[in-house]
Amino acid sequence: MKVGIVAGEKSGDFLGAELVEAIKKRHPNAEFVGLGGDLMQSAGVVSLADMEKISIMGIAGALKGLREILSIRRKIRQHMMEWKPDVFVGIDVPDFNLGLEIKLKEHGIPVVHYVSPTVWAWRSKRIFKIKRAIDLMLTLFPFEEEFYQKNNTPVRYVGHPLAKQVIDWEVSSEFLSALNVERSESKKIIALLPGSRMSEVSRLAPVMFEAAVKLKQTYPDLEFVVPAANEKLAKYLREVINEYQAPVRLIEGHSRDLLAVCYATILASGTAALEAALFAKPMVVMYKVAKFEEWYASRTMVVEHFSMPNHLVKPPVVPELIQKEATPERVIYELRQLLDLPEAYEKQRKSLASIVTDLSEDSGELACDAIEALLLARKS
Questions:
Q1: pTM for this one?
Q2: Contact between 114 and 15 (Cβ < 8 Å)
Q3: Do 192 and 293 lie in a common domain?
Q4: Using an 8 Å Cβ cutoff, are 371 and 85 in contact?
Q5: Which of 98, 106, 207, 211 has the highest CB neighbour count under 10 A?
Q6: Residue 62 and residue 141 share a domain
Q7: What is the C-alpha radius of gyration for the chain, rounded to an integer number of angstroms?
Q8: Do residues 221 and 352 both lie within one domain?
Q9: What is the dihedral of CA 212, 213, 215, 216, to 10 degrees?
Q10: Mean pLDDT across the stretch 304-323?
């Protein structure tokens, strides 16, 4: 069995590695070629380029690196057309993958897209491009499956792999040793997660750190901790911490361990918000992009909320600080609600606690089932 597979960022690398392992259990001789990070490569994927090259946030970032991104996509497309995989799986990064998938589908290669674009939230006309590009959509959330069914698009809900991981999560002793913070009623750890891309971290980290400086003056027992996804981000975060003289501890990695032990978190909208919700950690979500992206989103959004937790619970409970509202003053106000009002803290925590059980499925196995069913149907 030959599988083409492309992921473009850290969360997709995780999903891809899990899917590869599930396929290998059933097809030990399967070959995997495409684009992936360390996890996918360790699982056996031959990566044709550096995944980080296409891991760029937003329109402005994509335009800056457009020539290299298009070159990587052409290289992958040419390789797939010559190699002729039994199936191609594009994981997330729709602006990169959908164009590639259209060409491969036209070439007769069965195409599966794993992780639905947020077509249900904004740029809804993308559904027509998606229908041209894929033979099957694999969704992480049940409400997405309903959306595709209404739009007559082959779909399978497979759950979110992170849910089962969180249920079985054990905080590493290495992390606890590195953290070295006494956990007690008075000592509350506040996790600061400004993102995994430099573009978002540079917008959000200064806001978070300025808020931490002022909050520490009122709440001296708070312990602020920020995890760095890589050394480049760690270097930048150290500089910002020094600039603001912020009372923030920097650790390398261990973001999920940090979410497991923290009292609350201030974070960037994205995968981290879902992870915090799966750990049932009350949060304040921030979202800040370039002016052009703000203008574009304002004209194409069809939902009221940015963060995934607010789409998974009713009514929405997570405060969202978007663009001009993403200020130190607003961060301080929203976190103080969680610190000073036990009923507000508990209301958010209890609401978020339902998410992990709702999304807990054997995602890799279900995705593998769906792919095998697609290939079997095409043969018959």
A1: 0.78
A2: yes
A3: yes
A4: no
A5: 211
A6: yes
A7: 21
A8: yes
A9: 110
A10: 87
Q: Do residues 138 and 196 share a domain?
A: no
**Domain range enclosing 299:** 166-359
256 with 355, same domain: the answer is yes
pLDDT for 305 equals 63
The residues pairing with 220 across neighbouring beta strands, listed in sequence order, are none
Q: How far is CA 175 from CA 14, 115, 227, 262, 362, in A?
A: 20, 30, 11, 13, 27
pLDDT for the residue 177: 84
Q: Are 288 and 108 in contact (CB under 8 A)?
A: no
What's the number of domains the chain is made of?
2
In the numeric block, which tokens belong to residue 268?
A: 């960037």
Which residue has 């009623």 as its token pair?
185
pLDDT digits (tens, 9 = 90+) for 10-29: 889 999 999 999 999 999 99
Nearest in space to 253 (alpha carbons), one of 273, 270, 274, 237: 237
- Two tokens at 134? 């894929």
Q: For residue range 222-231, what is the model confidence (pLDDT) as tens digits?
A: 999 999 988 9
Q: Before 315, cis peptide (omega within 30)?
A: yes
Separation between Cα atoms, residue 109 and residue 350, nearest integer Å? 45
* Chain length of the chain: 380
* Same domain? 98 vs 238: no
Which is nearest to 138 in space by CA: 5, 296, 253, 304?
A: 5
Whether 225 and 155 share a structural domain: no
Kindly give the residue spans of alpha helices, DSSP state H, lying in the chain.
10-26, 38-43, 58-64, 66-83, 94-106, 126-133, 142-150, 161-167, 173-179, 198-218, 231-244, 255-261, 271-278, 291-300, 309-312, 328-340, 342-359, 363-379
What is the identity of the amino acid at 270? G
